[in-house]
Write a structure and sequence with these properties.
single chain; alpha+beta; D-amino Acid Aminotransferase, Chain A, domain 1; D-amino Acid Aminotransferase, Chain A, domain 2; 9-stranded mixed β-sheet; 8 helices; 17 strands; 27% helix; 29% strand
Length: 307
């Protein structure tokens, strides 16, 4: 997990590098009050050629799409934000890190109105380990949530906006209270959607199954990476609606995400998945993904931007 003392780091704020402890916003900032911030999460990895940011362009494209969905005008374009991310990683001399670009309404007035309000963008980069700790290797326990995943008639699930994640937080609280490590949310229609902050894959008869966009998922960039790696290796990948009971009978189940990377799921709702241990196909994809992000796979080297 991330370290707590980041006081020696700098962040990029509206075009300038600022000391971590000097990057402050007013307590009544609109996005703090109402959850109106737009964000991304990406990683840089320590490779033989130096720090490499994974799929930088794709993450920034999604960042800008999220802002457009929520009609948030930004002062910076794709290239400027990409440059800001590279500059922040370089300035902090981090070989590997988690990177958080964040756009917010820099306004203190009480009220929901956003029209005409000033927006700001910051980029933070900080040391970060395994999101699930040892669970990334040994596997984690999950609980299907009683909370449903938001859908487009409620909030846009395809945007990474702060307020959307209250849905995930409620599911996470419930899962941890039951003794599980993570939640699995289903759509209002009852189909498997995703974890609180991860996409989900099932392995069944040597093929991969994963929920489609219609299941109200966030289209994860790590998810897309695993699909492309799988297809490159000759695995069939099926994007379709998945019933909850299919989780229990799958050969293997795993999460994907920037923070989670590839994390095996060994138990769901008290039922062992497979033999209750990380499966061979999950372990293989975890290794392949690690090779790609750490610069050990030339075939997907175009996904890396060196800082």
């Amino acid at each position: 997990m991330a370290v707590n003392d980041n006081s020696n780091l700098v962040v990029w704020l509206d075009g300038k590098l600022v000391k971590w402890n000097d990057a402050k916003v007013p307590i009544l900032t609109h996005s703090l009050q109402y959850g109106s911030g737009i964000f991304e999460g990406m990683r840089a990895y320590d490779t033989p050629k130096g720090a490499a940011i994974f799929r930088l362009q794709d993450h920034v494209k999604r960042f800008l799409r999220s802002a457009k969905i929520y009609a948030m005008p930004l002062k910076f374009d794709q290239k400027q934000i990409e440059d800001a991310i590279v500059k922040t990683v370089k300035a902090n001399k981090l070989k590997s890190c988690y990177i958080r670009p964040f756009a917010f309404y820099d306004d203190q007035q009480i009220g929901l109105r956003t029209t005409g309000k000033k927006t700001s963008v910051f980029v933070a980069a900080l040391p970060f380990g395994a999101y699930f700790g040892k669970g990334r290797d040994t596997g984690i326990k999950c609980k299907t949530s009683t909370w449903h995943r938001i859908n487009s008639s409620i909030l846009p699930p395809g945007a990474k906006v702060s307020g959307n994640y209250i849905n995930s937080i409620m599911a996470k609280i419930e899962a941890e209270a039951s003794g599980a490590d993570e939640a699995i949310l289903c759509s209002v229609e009852g189909y498997v959607a995703e974890g609180s902050g991860e996409n989900i894959f099932l392995v069944q008869d040597n093929r991969l199954l994963t929920p489609p966009k219609d299941a109200d998922i966030l289209l994860g960039i790590t998810r897309d990476s695993i699909i492309k790696i799988a297809e490159n290796l000759g695995y069939a990948v099926e994007e379709r609606n998945i019933h909850k009971e299919e989780l229990y009978t799958a050969d293997e189940v795993f999460f994907t995400g920037t923070a989670a990377e590839v994390t095996p799921i060994v138990s769901i709702d008290g039922r062992h998945i497979g033999n209750g241990k990380p499966g061979p196909i999950t372990r293989m994809f975890a290794e392949k993904y690690s090779d790609v992000v750490n610069g050990r796979n030339e075939e997907f080297s175009g996904w890396l931007t060196y800082a």
